[in-house]
Write a structure and sequence with these properties.
The chain is of the alpha/beta class and 356 residues long. 47% of the residues lie in helices and 14% in strands. The chain has a single domain, classed as TIM Barrel, CATH 3.20.20. Helix 4 packs parallel to helix 6, helix 7 packs parallel to helix 8 and helix 15 packs antiparallel against helix 16.
């Protein structure tokens, strides 16, 4: 297996070898359910858009910016993350950002993506909500035709801001229900439990939005319980600390509640020590509906197939583990049942062709 830094855009082939077959992890059909569009903002594009908008990117060069991606925890990452996105101002900027991600995702076998965006990080800078949504949805619509990849948007509230700010953002978002499939919760987890946003999520569900939530990344298993019981989250983003609570594990297994796991992110932010100690294999062995995703790939060193390759190498995942993860990604998605069957059948055809 060969793995290279995705951010460097070096040519590489990612394969899983065993006695029976070779699975090309870049071509394996998959969905990505946990990716922040702002976290796909590669330094080269930051500089391009900064120059276009006449904004100082804050670093002397692309290499200097990339060198700043040395994080000690979630908050140190967020400081750089929010600084980078301040160059985004126009509909074209958001279109270019989403298009760049979708092109990379399609090249890594993604057939469907459910993409987070953080409107408060933009509207608080004076960018209209309509500008953000128009640029992103324009890119999603173009990709459906050009790249044959479907995508949904998920609006995330910044949990380190107030519930009142989240409610105000929800009010602005309601007229865009046909462009936003779900409401989520992200940003600094510790000290900002899901219960803080229970009323906002009640309103979101009443307006017809699905709900998801980041929980159990840096925060304790109790945050996962809150996300399920108070926010009625259809899936848990991250959830790696769920394994600390056997009762929670049993509930997640029994109810088939998806976990959108992000291995490179967990290592980069020191949630786990290294990939060899990542709990993904234990999640699969426990019967959990775990999926592999890239989170903020421009900052964490790899897109979704790179994350697959990393955990395959570090955890010794079998072919059946890899196929299960790919199928889990569609089962956990918000596409309808007919489309899920189409995608899962594609995986079966892919693996049959590979093994023949």
């Amino acid at each position: 297996m060969t793995i290279a830094c995705c951010a460097c855009e070096k040519a590489r082939t990612v394969h899983l070898y065993n006695f029976a077959r070779v699975i090309d992890l870049r071509q394996l059909p998959k969905a990505e359910l946990h990716v922040h569009v702002e976290g796909t903002f590669e330094p080269e594009l930051i500089f391009t858009i900064a120059e276009r908008n006449g904004i100082d990117p804050g670093y002397a060069s692309v290499d200097a910016l990339r060198a700043a991606y040395n994080f000690t925890d979630l908050q140190s990452f967020l400081n750089v993350y929010y600084a980078g996105m301040r160059v985004l101002r126009t509909e074209r900027d958001y279109y270019d950002l989403a298009t760049a991600y979708l092109e990379r995702a399609a090249a890594q076998g993604v057939r469907h993506a459910e993409i987070f965006f953080d409107p408060q990080a933009h509207t608080d800078r004076g960018v209209p909500f309509a500008t953000v949504v128009a640029g992103l949805t324009g890119a999603l619509e173009a990709a459906r035709e050009r790249l044959r990849i479907s995508a949904h948007l998920i609006l995330c509230f910044l949990r380190d801001l107030s519930a009142e700010s989240a409610m105000a953002t929800l009010e602005v978002a309601i007229p865009y229900r046909n462009r936003i499939i779900a409401i989520g919760l992200d940003s600094a987890e510790v000290g900002n439990p899901p219960s803080k946003f229970a009323t906002v999520f009640d309103r979101a569900r009443a307006e017809g939005f699905l709900t998801v939530a980041h929980a159990g990344e840096e925060g304790p298993p109790e945050y996962v319980w809150e996300a399920l019981d108070l926010l009625h989250a259809a899936r848990i983003d991250h959830g790696v600390r769920s394994l600390e609570d056997p009762q929670l594990v049993e509930r997640l297994r029994r109810q088939r509640i998806p976990l959108t796991v992000c291995p490179f992110s967990n290592v980069k932010l020191h949630v786990v020590a290294d990939l060899a100690h990542h709990p993904l294999k234990r999640m699969l062995d426990a019967g959990l509906l775990a999926t592999v995703n890239s989170d903020d790939p421009a900052y964490f060193g790899g897109y979704v197939a790179d994350n697959f390759a990393g955990v395959v190498a570090a955890l010794g995942l079998s072919d059946s583990d890899v196929i299960a993860l790919a199928k889990n990604s569609f089962e956990a998605s918000f596409v309808d049942d007919a489309k899920k069957r189409v995608h899962i059948n594609e995986i079966d055809h892919f693996t049959a062709a590979t093994s023949s």
